[in-house]
Amino acid sequence: MRVIPIQQNSPGLWWLTTTRDDVPRFEGTPTSQLNLPPGPSKDEVTRIVSEGAYSHKVDNVSGVDRYYGTQLASNSPCEDKFLHGKLPSPRNDGSQWMTWAVFDGHAGSQTADLLEKQLMPFLAHSLGQMKSLPSNDSVAEESIHDAITKGFMDLDKAIIDDAAELTRSKIPLHEKVKLLAPAYAGSCALLSLYDPVSSKLHVACTGDSRAVLGQKGPDGKWEAIPLSIDQTGYNMGEVERLQKEHPGEEEMIKNGRVLGLAVSRAFGDSRWKWSLEFQKEMKQNFNGPSPLTPRYDVRTPPYLTAEPVITSTKIDPSRPSFLIMASDGLWDMLSNQQAVDLVGKWLEPSEKRVELEPTYEPFDFGQFWKGMNWKFMEERTTVQDENAAVHLVRNSLGGNHHELIAGRLAFGAPFSRHIRDDITVQVAFFNVPDIQSR
C-alpha cells in the first residue's frame, strides 16, 4: 500500500491508494450438509476431563502423601475456584499445615474469585492471633474453630458491611462498581486444614460443597465418613435455625430454597443480607441487582450468614484414608459412599481389575425421563485415569458409557448448564505411601 500526502496546505487529509484489492471475498456454493466437526471422541473426552488436572507429592507434612485435583467448567467463565498448599503452623514450631479449599460461586464468579485470593490471608491473620495452642485437645480445637470462624466472618463483613462506606467514598464510579461486584454475586466455601502434630483434619463448610473421608476398615472395605453437611433448605437443622431467627415468616423456605436461593449460608449474596432500603439505593445508584421483592416476602434480613460449620476429625495413622472435597457439581451425580468406593477402586492394583468393553444402545437425553438413571451407575464404572480427581469426574458423567459422557461434554456454555454444573474436585491421601508411585 502507498500512502500519498496531498498538498501541505490541507493538514489532516490523506489520499490512500492501493496497488491491489485486498478485501476478503467469499465464494462457493452451499452444501446439502453442514461440514461441522464431530462430537468428542474417546481421546477428546479424556483431554477435556483432564485439562484442569494437577497432582502434588507432599514432603515434610507427616501423614499426607499426595493429593490430586481437577476442574471441569460448565459456565463461561467457570464460577468455581479452588486453592491448595502449605501454611505455617499456628503452633509456631516451624512445621507446616496443609490446606485445601473449594469455592462454588453463583450469580457470577466475582465472589469466588475474591475468596480464592483473600480467604487464606484472612485465615492466616486470625490463626496468627492465637498466642499458642493449648495442650488440651478439646480446648485447642475450640481455639482453631474460633479462629476459622473469625476469618470467614471478617472477610464476609468486608464484602457486605463495608459496601456502604465504599459507596460514600470519592473513588471513581468504575472502581466502585468493580469493588461491589463480590457483594452482588455469591459463593459457597469449603476449607480443610490438616495439622500433622495432632493428626487432626479441620473442615469448615459454608454452603453446599461437601467433604467426605474415606477410611479403610479391618475388612478391607472403605467407609464413607461425612465431614460436612450441605447447608440448604433441605437441611432440617438449617430450617430450624432460620425459623428461630425469623419467626412467623412461613414463606421464607420453599422447595429447599431460602427466598429462592439454593443455599442457607454463603459469602456475598447481598440481596439476602442488606436492608431493602439499601438494596434500592444500590440498584438506583450503582446498577445493583433488583431487590428480591415483590417476588419474595423480605421482612427481616439478613437471611444468610457466612459463618461456617466446622468439624475436626482425627486421622488414624494406622489406617489408610483419603479426603474428597468437591463442589455440588460432583455430588449432584454421586453419593458419599459411591465416591469413596470409586476412589477405593482406583487404588486397586491394575491386575486386580476386570473391565469389559461395554455395548450400549443408541442414546438420547429424552431417555432420562423414561427410567434411565442420569446419575452415577456402578455398572458404568471405569478406571482409566492416572488422576483420582479426574477419575471421579469421568465416572460421575457417564464412565464407560461413551455416548453419554461425550454428549454431556459436547455442549458448551450456556447450554451445558442444563445437564452439568461446574465441577471442582480435590482428593488428598493420608497414610497411603504406595500412592507416591502412581
List keywords for this structure.
6-stranded antiparallel β-sheet, 438 residues, globular, 17 strands, disordered N terminus, 7-stranded antiparallel β-sheet, alpha+beta
Q: How many DSSP-defined strands? A: 17
Main beta sheet strand tally, sense and closure: 7 strands, antiparallel
Name the helicity range.
Answer: 25-40%
What is the CATH class?
A: Alpha Beta
Rg is 26 Å
N- to C-terminal separation?
A: 60 Å
Poorly predicted sequence stretches spanning 5 or more consecutive residues: 1-16
Instruction: Write down the secondary-structure element order.
Output: EEHEEEEHHHHEEEEEHEEEHEEHHHHE
Describe the global form: globular
Strand content: 15-25%
If helices are DSSP runs of H or I spanning 4 or more residues, what is the number of helices?
Answer: 11
Indicate the mean pLDDT: 91
As for the number of domains, it is 1
Q: What does the model show?
A:
There is one protein chain. It is built from eleven helices and 17 strands. It is α+β, with helices and mostly antiparallel strands and 438 residues long. It has one domain (42-437): Phosphatase 2c, domain 1, CATH 3.60.40. Strands 5, 6, 7, 8, 9, 14 and 15 form a seven-stranded antiparallel β-sheet that branches. Residues 1-16 have low confidence and may be disordered.
